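User: Transposase, Aphanizomenon flos-aquae LD13:
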Amino acid sequence: MLRDKITETFVKVDDFCNEFEILYSKHQLPAPSNVKTRNRKAGMCDSEIITLLIAFHGGQFRNFKHFYVDYVSVHLREDFPGLVSYNRFIELSHRCAIAFMLFLHHCCKGECTGISFIDSTVLRVCHNKRIKRNKTFKGFAEVGKSSMGWFFGFKLHLIINDKGEILSFFLTKGNVDDRDAKTITNMTKDLFGKLFGDKGYISKALSDLLFGNGIQLITA
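Assistant: Predicted structure for Transposase:
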């Protein structure tokens, strides 16, 4: 991603984050009086962190560490004067998850053209041999099965248009079926026309449901 494009992205993200912080602070519960809170400065604001996460996907780097260490730290230090180490950046990125998700949902989705594609991918929490010992997502992640076998984690469901633009996305537990009516209904409420999917979406009930909402499901 070119530097001018990174600057343009930052401006959009920063405007959104400023509005998000105002709304978030109004609904945030006050901390108990007997609990000490740390006000350590992070070095990088949420807008900068989200901008770099977006910029990574606009480049040709195979992994984020390579992008951050070999490109951002070398060529973009003037644009991000508060740049932190790679490990520290990964720690800070967790706090931006909600703001990043809302930014994608409200500011980055494309428009339905009448031709859409749906698919899902697994998000593994750990290796299958360590499922019983995993505590990080206990109570949230679930055991599921994909075309590649069993896994423990979540599923990311995604719909794009014929231009490759994201129309809708949804995160579920790993044991949720791709044809789950509630998930599909939420994802397709603003769609029309034809929706293409693989054989994992073959279901007469789902086809009838979508057809009633003006969508023709085509599976292969």
